[in-house]
């Protein structure tokens, strides 16, 4: 895919930065294994999974694991899509993303399982055009440049919406990037359409100058998913349960203290909005982890079938076996 000069250079720098992050993480991981220092639980954490991002900064899981004489190692990175690579190299045991990455991971043959999901997040994003744009519906998107974070729920939203209008994902031109890069592409004119997720969606709402083609909840459930290596989820079930129990407690803290949580994000996430904008974003999303029910799995399967139809993944996959028995923490035990 060709990009204008500035975008091409910026994306090349971003790609190199992400690659170096993974290389450093891999080097640390291999050293730990060679020296017999690998933690009992290794978790991938990035800013787009808000729950793990806050948990990592709370010390709560470390205290919970002391009951089992166990330790945790956190591998931090900026782009949630790297979660697939980290699972592929068996560098992490547990991670959290939107709904697209676990489907992609399964389509690539990774032996991962769903552990928990969030409630739907209908208010967490929207498809935007500039207020004076001639684009009036998804039917007008053919051949247009769309700024989004490909491989995230942005992909699912566009795939579903385009399919409803008899179009394919290949009918648009994708300008892929992280949230702040999507924002830059949109306001610079490189993209005519922006799939904006929070906190950038909240920022755009406050600044004005945009018009909404659709909000996320009009087309998809947009759940967070937490997934794990099958071996970890099944063989170290007590540790997996400790992770989920800590996540649930941490999420309760965020719900009760959104301003304090917003301060963590504003301080630690580069190129992101201010504390007030983060607080708006955190207040309007659901918190907590839920059991992966048959209804949720069917929802994920419909998405996977659509991705295969539109060529987002190479071939159809079956998700029914990619789930473990619900953990006690999810049952309130």
Describe this structure in words.
The protein has helices spanning 5-34, 50-58, 60-65, 82-88, 100-107, 153-164, 179-188, 200-207, 230-235, 237-256, 258-268, 275-283, 294-310, and strands at 41-45, 72-76, 94-97, 112-117, 125-130, 145-148, 173-176, 193-197, 210-215, 225-229. With 333 residues, it is α/β, with parallel strands linked by helices. It has two domains: 39-119 and 223-331, D-Maltodextrin-Binding Protein, domain 2 (3-Layer(aba) Sandwich); 122-218, Periplasmic binding protein-like II (D-Maltodextrin-Binding Protein, domain 2), CATH 3.40.190.10. Strands 7-6-8-5-9 form a five-stranded mixed β-sheet, sandwiched between helices. Helix 6 (153-164) links the parallel strand 6 (145-148) and strand 7 (173-176). Helix 2 (50-58) crosses helix 10, helix 6 (153-164) crosses helix 13 (294-310) and helix 8 (200-207) packs across helix 12. It is globular and about 60 Å long.
Outline of the structure:
By secondary structure, the chain is an alpha/beta fold. The protein has helices spanning 5-34, 50-58, 60-65, 82-88, 100-107, 153-164, 179-188, 200-207, 230-235, 237-256, 258-268, 275-283, 294-310; strands at 41-45, 72-76, 94-97, 112-117, 125-130, 145-148, 173-176, 193-197, 210-215, 225-229. 46% of the residues lie in helices and 15% in strands.
